[in-house]
Amino acid sequence: MACSSPQKTEKAEPKSKVQEIVDESIAFHGMEGLNNADFSLTFRDIDYTYKNSNGMFEYTRTQTDSIGQTVFDVMNNDGLERLTDGDTTNITEEKRAAYTRSVNSVIYFFRLPFGLNDAAVNKTLIGEKEIKGKTYYEVKVTFGEEGGGEDFDDVFLYWFDKEDYSMDYLAYLYHTDEGGMRFREAINPRRVNGVLIQDYVNLKPEDESMDIMNIAELYNAGELEVLSEIINENVKFTIK
């Protein structure tokens, strides 16, 4: 019987503080299982579904157009396809990119903070910040060009409660569709099958060219303009 030589065990690198914060937040939100999960929701009268099985994913969006046709977008590892009343719709690459951004955006924000462990994410702990009298960890996120998509140069800020690691606020600077800056306040927290679901108040600064690192101070001072509410309805979750 052959004997194998003992393998040298490499010592695991200690987890960074920012990684610990994100992992704790994902656990608090009940999202550890989203690599193998299905969910559905309705956002602004449009239905979305999500299926993910170890990196093989499918996102869908179903809506009714102005003349009553059913428009179905399906996005997976191979790209995005649009069907109208069940028939494949020929679309330009520009529109395909726009539809992909739109579908991906809704899913991405809905499943935060889960996506903060994606390979293209660069996380930095900025420090601590007081917002509305509570102390938060402030984390800055940028994206690597490889795997970061066409929006890789966007910048995000997240604020995690120091006590329970809930993600109560986020802000982002984006460059697509003429660009801009947004700040979101989480509202209506509730759990569906153990997963924390949140809606958001969507706000913006008067000067969207400002330094995003100062946006929390403007929020504390009541100097952000409310644009809309992000309300997720009819949420159903299955963690496999």
Short description:
The chain is of the alpha+beta class. The chain contains three helices and 14 strands.
Question: Can you walk me through this structure?
Answer:
This protein has two domains: 16-30 and 118-231, no CATH class; 35-110. It contains three helices and 14 strands. It has helices at 17-28, 93-110, 215-220, and strands at residues 36-43, 46-53, 56-64, 70-76, 79-84, 87-88, 121-131, 134-143, 155-161, 167-174, 180-192, 195-205, 224-230, 232-239. The N and C termini lie far apart (41 Å).
Biggest sheet architecture = 7 strands, antiparallel
Q: Taking strands numbered 1, 2, ... along the chain, how are they ordered across the largest sheet? A: 6-5-4-3-2-1-14
Q: Find the structural class using helix and strand composition.
A: alpha+beta
Quickly count the helices: 3
Task: Return the domain count.
Answer: 2
Helix content: 10-25%
| Total DSSP E strands | 14
Order of helices and strands: HEEEEEEHEEEEEEHEE
* Mean pLDDT over the residues: 91
Proportion of residues in extended strands? over 45%
